[in-house]
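To illustrate this point, we now present one chain and its tokenised fold:
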Amino acid sequence: MKALTRLLAVSLLLLAGCATGPAIDRSYSSVSQDSRVQFLILHFTWGDWKSSHKVLTEGPVSSHYLVRDKPVEIYGLVDESRRAWHAGVSWWKGHTHINASSIGIEIVNAGNRLAAQGIDWEDYPPEQIEAVVALVKDIVKRHQIKPDRILGHSDIAPLRKVDPGPKFPWKRLADEGLIVWPDAAKVAQRRIAYEASLPDTAWFQAKLGEHGFAIPQTGELDVVSQRVLAAFQMKYRPAKFDGQPDAETAALLAVLTEPAERR
């Protein structure tokens, strides 16, 4: 009987140890560390609130946040410490598997889904953008995300995605000091020179790669190059994103790829 009692006591101690884990002294902290979150990726849902909510909570994809349009509300769907499935196959400045190192924000917006109804791209309500900006600011402050790592899905997957689309006001994020934006005066000056002599396709491919995109350096204006160029134009020159090289696009690329102290 005593042996059985002792065995039960030992078993309970072992179970308690498994439940609580080993004793860990956390009185020391390394100075060599930063957040696991390195990127912030913005999306549109390409659907209405009801369908977007259902897909992102019950489907095979997810995001950390969902920003509703009417009424404007922010929903936290995945804890920031966990990985959400929003980026897919992705690449930016040599970084891959961006799901593992990013926070995703889905914004309820139909994008170009309503083209058949005469709406080429759906507008974002001002109140919704205010909520997105506030959320981005909060995330960036907590994780110290660098300005060149606040991106659209179309930046990291330009052959597959176009979100958040040409209606998303990237300039507003720039005005808030969240992302880098080309100086208008410098762009205008560079444009004059490029109107006189436009760089060749190899130059555009090299600059797009320097900016951050994954793009083969073929020297040919192939379909891939046009899609990547269109993604760049959609963000920085949304009035025209036809994927064709021109003087304004060259000027934007030249200024954005200048050293930071000269930009």
In short: The mean pLDDT is 92. The CA atoms of residues 237 and 249 lie 8 Å apart. The domain at 184-256 is CATH 1.10.101.10 (Muramoyl-pentapeptide Carboxypeptidase; domain 1). The two ends are 82 Å apart (CA to CA).
